[in-house]
Amino acid sequence: MIRVVLAAILVLLPPAGRPAWWHPGAAAIEWQWELDHPLNLHSRSDMGLGAVLLSGRLAGDPTVYDIDGFDNSAATVAALHRAGDRVICYIEVGAAETYRPDYRSFPARDLGRRVPGYPQERYVDIGDPAVRRLIEARISMCARKGFDAVEPDIDDSYADRTGFRITEAENLAYDIALAGYAHRLGLAWGQKNGDADPAFSRSLEPYADFLIDEQCFQYGTCSIVTPPYRRAGKAVFEVEYTLPRSRFCAAANRDGFDSMRMSVALAGGRQPCR
């Protein structure tokens, strides 16, 4: 079933060998993930500057910033570009947030259960074309602001209790359609988590340009979610929140991950592995 769905939407991608968007590869990438508030370009903590490796050596400054697509302006993105940096646009694709300006545009019938731990966020019915159009509008916002890529949070809601009947095949078709839309706008597309099912990563990797994963060392899921991206030579951006770096950095560096320890608030600061 999944192979049929994927074959049907393969036409969404441009011909092989003709990259029209950023392709982060497996070479080490210094990056910063700051979602708690608008990025302060004058804050060393927000900018991830002055980080120190386990060895005590000063880490390089970030060249990739993953920041909130709604909260940050085109001027912030342009300033990062002037510094030679790439910028990833964080949006949710499987939920709607009451604090976003587009929340009231989601039909009431498409708002499901609240996301556990996030009472202001509700899962959406990704099978409704109206939802897809609203999420495409979010992707278009990222493009208008000049971002280089999209981090699509909650892109695996088929594995959650959303209030809707969403199959894995339907979720893959939705994600791949959004990836194709982003690519047509010149944006790279990522996979976010998806640790519970190795088939999900295998099916999505051909359409995604990088992986962002949380706590795969803590929960022992690195071998589930990362192998397709490692084999394809694509970037694996990975973060731990509670494990000390001594517990995961050696393995992360061996496997070529761009791993860090960060505060779960993602409010600035970083402790990179390499």
Topology:
Layout: H1 2-8, E1 31-34, E2 64-68, H2 74-82, E3 86-92, E4 95-97, E5 111-115, E6 118-124, H3 129-144, E7 149-153, H4 168-184, E8 188-192, H5 198-204, E9 210-214, H6 222-225, H7 227-231, E10 235-240, H8 249-255, E11 258-261, E12 271-272
Parallel strand pairs: 1-2, 2-3, 3-7, 7-8, 8-9, 9-10, 10-11
Antiparallel strand pairs: 4-6, 5-6, 11-12
Helix pairs in contact: 3-4
Query: What's the order of the H and E elements?
Result: HEEHEEEEHEHEHEHHEHEE
Distance between the termini: 40 Å
Low-confidence stretches: 1-18
Number of strands: 12
Could you report the average pLDDT, rounded to the nearest whole number? 94
Please give the share of residues in helix.
Answer: 25-40%
Q: In what range is the share of β-strand residues? A: 15-25%
Q: Which structural class fits the helix and strand makeup?
A: alpha/beta
Q: Radius of gyration in whole Å, from Cα?
A: 18 Å
Tally of helical segments: 8
Per the principal axes of the C-alpha atoms, what is the gross shape?
globular
* Spatial strand order of the main sheet: 1-2-3-7-8-9-10-11-12
Task: Tell me the major beta sheet.
Answer: 9 strands, mixed
